[in-house]
Amino acid sequence: MSTLFAILFYVAFATLVAGLGFKIAQYARTPAPLKIPTTPAPLTQSGAAFRVAREVVVFESLFKSNKPLWIFAILFHFGLFVVLARHLRYFQEPVWFPVALIQPLGVWGGLAMVGGLLLLTLRRMLLTRIAYITAPGDYIMLGLLIAIGASGMMMTTLTHTDVVAVKAFFLGLMRFDIRALPADPVLYAHLAMVALLMIVFPFSKLLHAPGIFFSPTRNQSDDPREKRHLCDWAAKLEAERN
Ligand code: HEM
Ligand code: HEM
Known about the structure:
The protein has 242 residues and is mainly α. It is 70% helix and 0% strand. It has a single domain (8-22, 39-241), classed as Up-down Bundle (Fumarate Reductase Cytochrome B subunit).
C-alpha cells in the first residue's frame, strides 16, 4: 500500500506541476489586444498590481457585488489557506516558525473550510437562479473538497493517525526513499482524494487561482490616453511593417 501511494503521489505531483506549467504558459501567451480594465481603474502599473493583490487577498470586486457569496467564499478560502499552511509541517524539517505558530488553528481552519464549502453548496442548490447554471462539475469539485476536509477533520478530532509516520513517509518521498505509511483507512481515503485533486486541478475550474493574475480587466492600468496599447503580436506586426 505504501508503494502504491508513493507511485500515486509521484504521478499526481508530476501532473499538477506539468499541467499548471502548461496552463500558465498558455495564459501568459494569450494576447490581450484591447485595453479593457474595469473602470475606475488604477492609472499606473504598480497601482494595477495592488488591485490584483486586493482581488486575491480580500476578493474586492466580489465584496462589492455579492456580500453573502463573499462571506462564504472568504470563509472557505481563508480556512483552506490556514489548513494548507498548517500542512507544510509534513514536508519540512525543521518546521518554519510561522508554520509552527499556526498549528493550534487546525480545527478552526478545518471548520471554516468545510463550513464555507457547505454554505457554497447550499447556495448552488437553493437559489433557483444559481441551480439553473450549476453543472455537475461544480458539485463534483465542491464534493471532493468537502470529502477531503471531512476526512482530515475526522483524523484531527476523532480517529487520530500516526502523524509522525505520515511526515516520515512524505519526507522520504522527497528523497526517493519509500517509508511505511500508517495502515489507516481514513488516512488512505484523505490521501487518495488529495492525489485526485492534484491530478484534476490543471483541468478544472480551480484554475481560477492562477488565472486571476492574467485577467486583463484587473491587471491593466487605465492609461490609454497617455500610452498606445499594443499587445506582443500587434507590436511585432507593426515592427515588421516599418
Ligand atoms: C489566488 C487564489 C484564489 C482566489 C483569488 C480565489 C477566488 C475565488 C472567488 C472570488 C470565488 C467565488 C467566485 C464565484 O463563485 O463567483 C472562488 C470560488 C471557488 N474557489 Fe477559489 N480562489 C483561489 C484559490 C482557490 C483554490 C486553491 C481552491 C481549491 C483548492 C479554490 C476553490 C474554489 C471553489 C471550489 C470555488 C467555487 C465555489 C462554488 O462552486 O460556488 N480556490 N474562488
Ligand atoms: C499530501 C498532502 C496531505 C497530507 C499528507 C495530509 C495529511 C493530513 C493528516 C495526517 C491530517 C490529520 C492531522 C492531525 O491529526 O493533526 C490532515 C488533516 C486535514 N487535512 Fe490533510 N493532508 C494533505 C493534503 C490536504 C489538502 C490538499 C487539503 C485541502 C484541500 C487537506 C485538508 C485537511 C483538513 C481540512 C484537515 C483537518 C484540519 C487540520 O488538521 O488542519 N489536506 N491531513
